[in-house]
Each structure stands twice: as structure tokens, then as C-alpha cells.
Amino acid sequence: MLLIGLLMIGLAGCTSLPAANTVKLKVMTYEKENRYFNHQYGDMFHAENGSIKIQLVRPKSVELEKTASNYVETLKQSIEQEQLDVLYLSIDDYKRLSAAGFLLDLEPLVARDHYNIDTIYPSIINFLREQGGGKLYGFAPTFQRQVIFYNMDLFEQYGIEPPHDGMTWQELIDLAGRFPTDGDEQSRIYGGFTSFGLDKESPLRELGTRIGLSMGLKAVNLDTMQVTVDTEGWKQAYEQAQKALSTNALYKGEFNTDEDFDEQQLFAKGRQAMLIAEEPSWAYSVLDYIKSGKSGVKPFRVGIAVGPVDPSNREITRDLNLGNDYVYAIRASSSNIDAAWELLKFMQGNEIASKLARRPDHGIPSRMGQTSDYYGINLDGFYHLTSLPLSNYYDDPDSGMITDEFKEKYEEIMYREWTQVERSQKSLDEALQTIQRDAQVALDEANLARKVNEKNGGKEPDKSMAKEKMTINWDDFKTVPFK
Fold first, then answer.
1. I need a surface site. Which of 100, 228, 268, 357 has the fewest CB within 10 A?
2. Strands 274-277, 147-151: pairing kind
């Protein structure tokens, strides 16, 4: 009996050993219900790594105002307070925290484990190193980029050469113009080429802005704090858009509801030759719609091409977007670095990439070499050419120098002026001059308010000393972002 008892004690000790060695890994999340992370990564990781248990934590820092003067310190304190191991960061916070020495350099771990990063899309690795001051501090398992989906059957039917990688906006506009423009609105074919349709309220603003951004143009120069809209580059971009819209080859529709989708998504209905999607994951919902038969047309073959490109360098696009996942990094002072590294390796590994490739709703896997037969689209096309970060109006969106108040006023000015041009109430040159003048006034006021705010330690300035704030009721505009 004594021997049996000793054996029972020994067996009990053996069964409890794995639990004693279990590592609790705290992973930062913005979610309240944690469904996305577990569906994408957590469930699979737990199935293969029983000794590492993930605890998802939503720190108070997710509610911080990023323009506050003490933002970085408060963010760090929040993360330290929660003792987070793996951080889920926007690219802005990744840049801030890596510069502050708060993130773990992954390069030594990559070298130690001979972990292959050569098959990760080079544009992403280069971008993360650039934002990390030359070092790699994190991984981005998925990304988005602008891609041209096209109806192969329509191009074949009309005997037109389909789009290819490296085309400029002007070349795509010219290509769209080769399709017939006759017929009524209920049956005619359009050459192209937006996801949600050009903003009906101001298609000139929408298309002209996209053309300019693809060329690397900006609205504000942060070095001089000067608005840079009334320039030859922006004038050419809007002239190009104005001419393109006059051809009647581009569909100028918009929709917000499922009913509108049925009626207005002409690419899905086989009536639009090209669809330019800033987020390919959204375009897959269009493909679902085609396959469902709801569009009322026979499913057709779909091809993809990367673009539009910068006319000054056809090897690059300005469309890299880290999508839903942002960046996963390790806190430099984490006491669970090895376990955190195992999670990052898994999330950036072939197994997860293969899963994501089967149905890339939440982004394209950044690990290349995966296959996907969804609608016959080869994922290899998404990795063609060099993709630079998704361009915006401003040189440095994480600097805090461009306030939300200015952005709102700028959009209001843009909408007002380009609407007048489209109604033939102003010339293009007059609109650019007015935008330049009024936006500069708004920038100067916002810059002064920002400096006062910083001087007050991040507190709001005395409202009695400030001019009345301009507000915009965006619901009145009913516009849809260009995709």
C-alpha cells in the first residue's frame, strides 16, 4: 500500500509539471471581445503550444489622445503597468516606441534561430526597418495594397489589351476610354474603375487627389508649415482628372447599403471593366457577390494588376497599408521574451500565411509563396513591384503637427472649392488659389492653438481666446471614401 501511495504521489507530480512550466503571455489588443485575434492566430497557436497561454489585455492607453504632449510617456506607463509582453501597435506607435528604446530588436533572434525573413514581402520588412531607425522591431502578418481587378472576359470581348503591372493613372484612364460609352445608364459598359464609385458629390476632388498622391504630392510641407496645393504638380493632377471625367468612361456612383450594392456595383454585374481597390480584402466581397449569382450575370474570369504607379518611377506604388493587423512587437523589458518570440514567429510563419491565403478577407499574407485558388486569383500578383507607404495629404501623420481640427477645415475647403469647379462657378486655377489661401489660414490657426496647448501641458486653451471652431456635418455630404 505504501508503494502504491508513493507511486500515486509520483504520478500526480508528473501530471502537474506542465502546468507549473506554463508561461502566461500578455498580448495587447484593441478588441473588447478578442474574437479577431483568436480566430486569426490564438486558437491555432494554443493548439500547438500548450505550455504558453495567451492572455489578451486591452490597456487604458487605447483611449489616449495621440496629439497630447505626454502621449508617448503615458502609453509606455500604461503598457508597463499591465506588464504586456507582445504589443499590437499602429505604425505611428511602433515608430514612437522603437525610437524610445521600448521595443525589442528582433534581428538577434532572427539570426540566432535562423528564422527566414527572406520570403516576407520585402516592402514590408524595409518599411518596418525604416520606421524602426534601421532595425527590425516587429512583424506585420498581413497587409493591403491598391490593386486593379479586371474583367478578363470584357477585355477579350472588345478586343482590348488588359491592364498590366506598372501602369500610370493616365494609362489606365486611356485604357478605360477604349470601351464604348454609348447606351443607357441601365445597360451600358464602363471602362472603370473605382471600388465604391467616384464620390458623386465631388468626383473631381476624389480622382484628382488620388492622382496627386500617387505622384507623392503633399498638401502641407512640415518643414516650412506651408500649404503646397497651388503648385504645378497638383494642377496637372486635377487637370488630368477633369479631362478623364469629361470622357464619360468612368462610373461616378456611390453606395452605402446592401440594396445599393445590388444596384450599383457594376463590376460585379459585369458592366465595369476595371475595379481599383485600395483594400483587396474588400474586393473579395465583390467576388463573393459574383459567385453567389445575385448579380444576375454569369460568373466571369477576373485578373489583377498592381498599380497605378508613380509616373516618375514605374517600379513603385504608394499604397502599402498594414491593414487590420498593424505591427506586433515585443516589449524590451518583458520577462517572457522567448515565449513572445515563439508567438511572433508563429504569427509570421508559413502555417498562418497558408491559412490566410485561402481566404484573404483580413488582408494579404505578408509571407510570400502561398497559393490561393479563390476565384482563380494568384496571390503572387500582390507582391509585384515595390510598395511605399500609403500616401496621404501630409508629410508626417504621426508628428502631431497636423491637428484634427485643421484636417476637418481642410476637407471642408476642398469640398467647397471643387464643387464650385464642377458646377462651372470657378476655374480650376481659381479653386487652387483659394484652397491655398484659406487652408494656410486654417493651418496657421491650428498651429498656434497646438503650440498654446503644448505650453499649457496638453490642457485645452482658454476657449474665450479662440475663434469659433468650424464644424462639418459629414452626414449631409453622404460621401464614400475612394477605394
1. 100
2. antiparallel
